[in-house]
Predict the structure of ABC transporter permease.
Amino acid sequence: MSWDIAMILTVDGLGAASIYLLAGLGLVLVFSVTRVIFVPFGDIAVFGALTLAYLETGRIPPTIALVATLAALTVLVEIVRLIRQGTHAAIPRTVLNWGLLPLLPCLPAMLLAGGDLPTYLTVLLALALVVPITPLMARLVFHPIADASVLVLLIAALVMHFLLSGLGLLFFGPEGFRTQPFLRGAIEVLPGITASYQILLMIGASLVLAALFFVAFERTMIGKALRATALNRVGAQLVGIRPAATATVTFCLASLLAGFVGILIAPATTMYYDSGLAIGLKAFVGAIIGGLSSYPLTALGSLAVGLLESFASFWNGAMKDVIVFSLLIPALLVRSHFSTHAEDDAEEEV
């Protein structure tokens, strides 16, 4: 392998790593606050990419019908639960929160779709349509079993992935879509080495979003509430922080990050309704390197995954996924060696 080829692969790897960085941050955020290993993260990213593709071609995105269906189902389930509990007074607020608020982005999308929209407006509409999907699905799937074990929540997340994949086929169809690049052309980063503006945009946007993510957690009250819930759920409840509310905010932020991931990756690869699993699993490898708890280590893990995938595709394209996922083995061995294991405190009776 020559130096020029190595640099080209490095640039491509940094572009992929920027995607896995955002996805990994979303996975760590959701797990730390809700204990859910959010397997369907990639499915939400795919919905963002497909929504943008529909808006670019002047068609009404099926995301509107998907959000409306999920909102109606969520409201129905919540009303049944409130009636069983005898809290009928909370029904209007429930209809507002879970029925009307998620539909707010749908009206402007229906009115504006079909016209020649500027790029920034199509991106904003795609993000706005995608954001309600995760909180609605989480309310249906995870809220009733919020106190279950991590294993049960993982099984529910897997079920949610297959459900979203089926909904993607139902609403978007089997066709693949690729959006137009936001920037065209390339720049020479080193003598003889060029990088497309689209890859530089992916890297820059990911770094900016990661920085905003850090600032939001460190400087805002919502971020501090999420950190408190992640560190000590019982303590957060004692000071008035509602885990259900923080979970909803968390899933909204995860959905927003997933929407950005889909929008950034859509010009680089053709997206299908079932393309999300590979994105989520590779981001999961980076999150595992960070122990599903450390954001800086997750960023380093995502960088390693992106670079390894790029070089592996050059060595053996058919085995690149196997090589990437094999990174889990040394990561788990190292973390198992350096982590402390809780001993069983129960003593055997004599």
In short: The longest helix spans residues 3-34.
